[in-house]
Amino acid sequence: MQKITTYLWFDNQAEEAAEFYISLFEDSRILDVQRYGEAGPGPAGTAMVVTFELAGQRYCALNGGPVFTFTEAISLYVDCASQEEVDELWAKLTDGGEESQCGWLKDRYGLSWQIVPKQLRELMGDPDPARAGRAMKAMLGMRKIEIQGLVDAADGK
């Protein structure tokens, strides 16, 4: 069992959000749904806590009401293997959400994500500081990360 689990507070969309998230990643599933009973505080029968896995990582989602909302101070970082993966996740997660910059976005539930191709880390860690700097400058001008644009910038094109 995982020792530390990310716990996400939703107003009343925990089950809907968990179903959406598991549709995006392989090795993902709902593990358990605890429902409010007659004692509340939520409506009887509605989800209270949804435990789910995304790509094998466990999360809990609570329907806790409108008291707290997500901020960019925490985000889920997705290490993408290809531009196709970046494009697909970006499109699905920004549907009803909003784009930010440098690979960040907010989904339709307000949760922040970083959709980052592995090549960005490789370019930013390039032993040539000028090459890494050019890649950084290019990334700072992007919303969705475009691998070819990073490579071209790093190579001085």
Could you characterize the architecture of this molecule?
This protein is of the alpha/beta class and 157 residues long. It has 5 helices and 8 strands. The chain has helices at residues 14-22, 83-94, 118-124, 129-140, 147-154; strands at residues 6-10, 29-35, 47-54, 57-63, 75-80, 98-99, 104-106, 112-117. The protein has a 4-stranded mixed beta sheet with strand order 1-4-3-2, with helices on one face. A hairpin with a 5-residue loop joins β7 and β8. It is elongated, with a radius of gyration of 18 Å. The protein starts with 5 loop residues before the first strand and ends with a helix. The mean pLDDT is 96.
Cα separation of the termini:
48 Å
Gyration radius (Cα, Å) is 18 Å
Task: Please state the oligomeric state of the protein chains shown.
Answer: single chain
Number of DSSP strands?
A: 8
User: What percentage of the residues does DSSP assign to strands (E)?
Assistant: 25-35%
Structure, briefly:
The protein has 157 residues and is an alpha/beta fold.
List the helices and strands and how they pair.
Layout: E1 6-10, H1 14-22, E2 29-35, E3 47-54, E4 57-63, E5 75-80, H2 83-94, E6 98-99, E7 104-106, E8 112-117, H3 118-124, H4 129-140, H5 147-154
Parallel strand pairs: 1-4, 5-8
Antiparallel strand pairs: 2-3, 3-4, 6-7, 7-8
Descriptive keywords:
157 residues; alpha/beta; four-stranded mixed sheet; 5 helices; 28% strand; elongated
